[in-house]
C-alpha cells in the first residue's frame, strides 16, 4: 500500500465486500491522498490486506445510516441492492429509500461529495450509432425497477447538488466484467448458451459498454479524489473498447466450447419474449426467467466514450475486456457455469 499523506481524504465505501466495493477499496489503497473507510455487514469478507477503518452495520438500519457517514469527506455508495428483473417492492425498500436517506444523512453530516454507482443503461441506447453523452437524459424503462430507481435517485442528487456544500457525482458504469462478479452479463449468458436457445439480438451488432474490475475501481477512486468538479457531475466509466455483442458472445463460445447463436431476432421481439418469460416465471422452474427485458436493454447498442472522465478525472481505462472475461470464466468453470440468480437475496 502507498503511504498516506497527512491531509488524506477520508472516503467511505459502502458495500465494501461486494464486487465493486472491493475494487474501489483496492484502488483507494493505492492512492496516497486517500484514507478509505469500509462500510459493510460482514468485515470478515473484506480483503485480507485492508488496513483501514471498518464501520460494520446494515444500511437498512436508519441509525447505522446516520452514524456511518460521520467524519468522512466523501461517500462512495457502491452498496446497492439490485435485481435484473421485477422486485419492485424490494427495489424501493432495500435500495431507493435507504439510499435517499443515506444521501440526506451525508448532507447533514457535512460530507463534501456523494458518489452513486449507477449504470450506462439508465440512458437510452444509441439509435443511430452516435455516442451516448455522460449527461444524456435518463430514460426510465417502466419494466426494470432497479434502473428506474437509480434514475429517481440521480434526479434527487441533481436537484440537491451543492446544497450545504455537498457535491453530487453519478458514475455511469459499464457492464461489470471480471472474477468475483456473480450478477452480470457473463455469468448470465454462459449457462443460457448451453441451451442453444439464445438468439442474436439485431444480428449481434450492438456495441457493449464493458468495464473490467480494476478499471471500475480506479474510475470510482478518481471521482472521489478529483479536484475542481462542478456541484453535479456525471461520468461514463467504461473500458478502452466497445466490442459488439457478436464479438463478446463469439469469444465466450470459443473459450467455453459452447455453441454460438444460430438465428437472430429484433430487439422488439427480444423485449416481447422477455416480457413473456417474466410473466411465466412463477410457473416455470429456475431461480430467474430465461430472458428478461433488462438483459435486452443492456444488449442494445451503446457507445459511451470516456473523454469527459479523462479530462476531469484523469481516468484512462487499461484492462482489455477479453482478459477480464477470461478471468471470470476461469472462476466459474470449476463450478460448471451455474445458472445465476438475477436478483440479490432479500
From TrEMBL:
Residues 11-237 form the NAD-dependent epimerase/dehydratase domain. GO terms for cellular component: cytoplasm. InterPro entries: Epimerase_deHydtase, NAD(P)-bd_dom_sf, NAD(P)-dependent_oxidoreduct. This is Nucleoside-diphosphate-sugar epimerase. It comes from the Bacteria. SUPFAM superfamilies: NAD(P)-binding Rossmann-fold domains (SSF51735). Transmembrane segments: none annotated. It comes from Streptomyces aidingensis. GO terms for molecular function: aldehyde dehydrogenase (NAD+) activity. The lineage of its organism: Bacteria, Bacillati, Actinomycetota, Actinomycetes, Kitasatosporales.
Amino acid at each position: 500500500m502507498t503511504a498516506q499523506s497527512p491531509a488524506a481524504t477520508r472516503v467511505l465505501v459502502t458495500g465494501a465486500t461486494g464486487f465493486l466495493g472491493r475494487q474501489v477499496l483496492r484502488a483507494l489503497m493505492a492512492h496516497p491522498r486517500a484514507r478509505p473507510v469500509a462500510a459493510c455487514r460482514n468485515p470478515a469478507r473484506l480483503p485480507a490486506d485492508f488496513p483501514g477503518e471498518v464501520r460494520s452495520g446494515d444500511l437498512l438500519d436508519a441509525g447505522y445510516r446516520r452514524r456511518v457517514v460521520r467524519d468522512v469527506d466523501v461517500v462512495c455508495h457502491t452498496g446497492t441492492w439490485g435485481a435484473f428483473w421485477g422486485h419492485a417492492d424490494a427495489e424501493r425498500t432495500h435500495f431507493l429509500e435507504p439510499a435517499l436517506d443515506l444521501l440526506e444523512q451525508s448532507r447533514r453530516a457535512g460530507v463534501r461529495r456523494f458518489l452513486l454507482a449507477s449504470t450506462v443503461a439508465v440512458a437510452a441506447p444509441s439509435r443511430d450509432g452516435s455516442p451516448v453523452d455522460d449527461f444524456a437524459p435518463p430514460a426510465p424503462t417502466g419494466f426494470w425497477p432497479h434502473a428506474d430507481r437509480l434514475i429517481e435517485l440521480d434526479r434527487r442528487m441533481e436537484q440537491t447538488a451543492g446544497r450545504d456544500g455537498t457535491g453530487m457525482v453519478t458514475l455511469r458504469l459499464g457492464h461489470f466484467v471480471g472474477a468475483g462478479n456473480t450478477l452480470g452479463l457473463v455469468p448470465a449468458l454462459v449457462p443460457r448458451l448451453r441451451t442453444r436457445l439464445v438468439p442474436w439480438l439485431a444480428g449481434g451488432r450492438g456495441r457493449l459498454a464493458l468495464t473490467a474490475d480494476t478499471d471500475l475501481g480506479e474510475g470510482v477512486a478518481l471521482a472521489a479524489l478529483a479536484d475542481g468538479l462542478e456541484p453535479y457531475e456525471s461520468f461514463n466509466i467504461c473500458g478502452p473498447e466497445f466490442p459488439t455483442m457478436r464479438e463478446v458472445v463469439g469469444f465466450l463460445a470459443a473459450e467455453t466450447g459452447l455453441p454460438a447463436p444460430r438465428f437472430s431476432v429484433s430487439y422488439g421481439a427480444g423485449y416481447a419474449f422477455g416480457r413473456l418469460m417474466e410473466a411465466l416465471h412463477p410457473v416455470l422452474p429456475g431461480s430467474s426467467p430465461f430472458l428478461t427485458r433488462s438483459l435486452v436493454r443492456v444488449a442494445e447498442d451503446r457507445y459511451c466514450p470516456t473523454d469527459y472522465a479523462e479530462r476531469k478525472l484523469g481516468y484512462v481505462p487499461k484492462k482489455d475486456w477479453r482478459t477480464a472475461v477470461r478471468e471470470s470464466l476461469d472462476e466459474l468453470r470449476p463450478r460448471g457455469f451455474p445458472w445465476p440468480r438475477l436478483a440479490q437475496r432479500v
